[in-house]
Amino acid sequence: MISRAWWILAVVLMLVPLALTNDFYYEVAIIALFNAMIAVGLNLLMGYAGQISLAHGAFAGLGGYLSAILVGTYGLDPLFAIAVSMGIMAAFAYLIARPILRLSGHYLAMATLGVGVIVSIALTNEEEFTGGTDGMSVEGFSLLGYPLDQGWQWYLLASVLLLGLMALSHNLIRSPLGRILRSLHDSEKAASSVGVDIARYKSRIFVLSVLIATLAGSLYAFFAGFISPQEAGFGRSIELVVMVVLGGMGRLYGAVIGAVILTLLPQFLASFEEYQTLIYGMIIIGVMVFMPRGIVSLFDRNPSHAG
Questions:
Q1: Is 23 among the domain residues?
Q2: Which of 6, 100, 113, 215 could disulfide-link to 2, CB 3.0 to 4.6 Å?
Q3: Poorest-confidence range of 47-56, 87-96, 280-289?
Q4: Is there a domain that residue 286 lies in?
Q5: What is the structure's pLDDT at 271?
Q6: In a domain, 267, yes or no
Q7: pLDDT digits over 132-149, tens only?
Q8: Mean pLDDT of all residues belonging to the chain
Q9: H/E/C letters for each residue in the chain?
């Protein structure tokens, strides 16, 4: 089942190219779509399951590095490289999920922060494979032998993937698994008392969220043709969390709105270079104070977690 909001998003994505008059506009739009993909996955973890992560920037960046290395160093096909990277990251996420997700609140936040910092340091210091602080160039991307070297091609791919992800997420949060995730968000003790295997379901949604971040991070690396440790830094992870909170935690389309706004906002503030950071911060604080449930609350009359 697909919601009315999904069709609205699909129409918007079809109309946006009419306003993309040059390569720079396409680039910003594509980055916004990749950010939206990661934010949607993070929202499943934070907004629905109630588990915070301050390491998703690191997961996306590490996934991008893995795909780039597999293609550039080992000569794998880009699609196969992304699939292998997702498999590696799924195993990595599962291994760290069990011990980390036993924690909650500030302890969980600090644990995920620690993982993110370790990943960022490793990418910075491993110069032989990652290029260290200078980053590394990434080979071009081809889809079934067809090279993607035009902005509209990347925009189409990112749009299709985002729409597919939204449909998947929409059905997931309305499934029995979605109800279990919301029960974890509301009260883990209550969920455990009725037989819910808390560790199992928290691990599942964590792995799914990391897989989405890996896919988006890998595609971004191929699109940009370059990746650096900055893409896996602490600031990047915080930016992704703010996207989810700004749009509306526990609101599926809020993550998309938050990602688009935070991607476009620096471009609109470029003419206020001296005051850009100040204005940027004031806008975010204003939204948090006057719209605590996120920007999507302006359009959504239903305060539940239904999406």
A1: yes
A2: 6
A3: 280-289
A4: no
A5: 72
A6: no
A7: 989 999 999 988 788 998
A8: 89
A9: CCCHHHHHHHHHHHHHHHHCCCHHHHHHHHHHHHHHHHHHHHHHHHHHCCCCCCCHHHHHHHHHHHHHHHHHCCCCCHHHHHHHHHHHHHHHHHHHHHHHCCCCHHHHHHHHHHHHHHHHHHHHHCHHHHCHHHCEECCCCEECCEECCCHHHHHHHHHHHHHHHHHHHHHHHCCHHHHHHHHHHHCHHHHHHCCCCHHHHHHHHHHHHHHHHHHHHHHHHHHHCEECHHHHCHHHHHHHHHHHHHHCCCCHHHHHHHHHHHHHHHHHCHHHHHHHHHHHHHHHHHHHHHCCCCHHHHCCCCCCCCC
What is the pLDDT at residue 300?
60
Q: What are phi and psi of 147, to 5 degrees?
A: -70, 140
Number of neighbours of residue 118 by Cβ within 10 angstroms: 12
Structure tokens at 223: 């699109």
- Count of domains for the chain: 1
